[in-house]
TrEMBL record:
Keywords: DNA-binding, Transcription. This is Uncharacterized protein. Coiled coil: none annotated. GO terms for biological process: DNA-templated transcription initiation. GO terms for molecular function: DNA binding. It comes from Babesia microti (strain RI).
Length: 241
């Protein structure tokens, strides 16, 4: 939970429901065969053209390993938990996934085409430490946050939609109001990610419900969520039942 001071002696409580964070761990990316091996080496995975998706149970979240070498995590967790899970997966990728046979009689592609558990006669392989896979917690970035704010009062969505501050920003009304929000935050990529340039907010949107609850999506920081609520406050505060 964190506080949002919108002025007029009003302080709202906001809660982060979902966090999406990512980091580039291999600037060279992963090949199709490597992704197949990765998918076989983790429980509860699916694989598609863009990479491998891993489902974690405790806490419930999803990690994506992309062919570009980027890892992303999505779930109802905090930043510390997200970084911990990303680091654990990176360590396994670096030390306990890629291997080669000890006996030269086995072809090199055996490590992709035949799972290790099919060899019951004992260890015939050795793990390869991947020096190209690196983890630096300072390079983990927040890609998107989903926050919930409750006003504890019912709202008249039709009146809010007509407020002058929201002119040309109302997307739709289907039991709730969708409002396009300004892009308050940007991230200038550095280091391994500098080729990505400046990354902007991902279509920031507010979903406003008649019950008085709001969802803020698309921002990368609590500061931007704070600014978004200050932007919305006049329309919300003057149109209540």
């Amino acid at each position: 939970m964190f506080d949002i001071d919108v002025g007029e002696n009003a302080v709202l409580k906001a809660r982060i429901l979902v966090i999406w964070m990512s980091i580039l761990v291999n600037e060279y990316g992963f090949t199709k065969d490597e992704l197949i091996l990765i998918a076989r080496s983790f429980p509860r995975t699916i694989i598609d053209k863009s990479g491998v998706q891993i489902y974690l149970k405790s806490p419930h979240c999803i990690i994506r390993i992309y062919s570009t070498g980027r890892l992303a995590i999505l779930g109802g967790i905090d930043e510390s938990q997200a970084i911990t899970h990303l680091e654990r997966v990176t360590k396994k990728l670096k030390h306990k996934i890629f291997w080669e046979p000890i006996n030269d009689s086995f072809p090199a592609d055996i490590r992709v085409n035949i799972p290790l558990h099919m060899f019951p006669l004992g260890p015939i392989y050795t793990f390869i430490e991947r020096s190209d896979i690196k983890f630096d917690s300072s390079k983990v970035q927040i890609d998107q946050l989903v926050a919930k704010i409750s006003l504890d009062r019912h709202l008249q969505l039709e009146k809010i939609a007509k407020h002058q501050s929201l002119h040309m920003r109302v997307a739709e009304i289907r039991g709730e109001l969708h409002v396009k929000l300004p892009s308050f935050d940007t991230i200038k990529m550095e280091g391994d990610d500098k080729d990505l340039g400046t990354v902007y907010s991902k279509n920031p949107t507010a979903i406003i419900y008649r019950s008085g609850s709001l969802l803020i999506l698309g921002y990368r920081s609590k500061k931007s969520i704070h600014l978004a609520m200050k932007f919305l406050w006049q329309s919300l505060n003057t149109n209540v039942n």
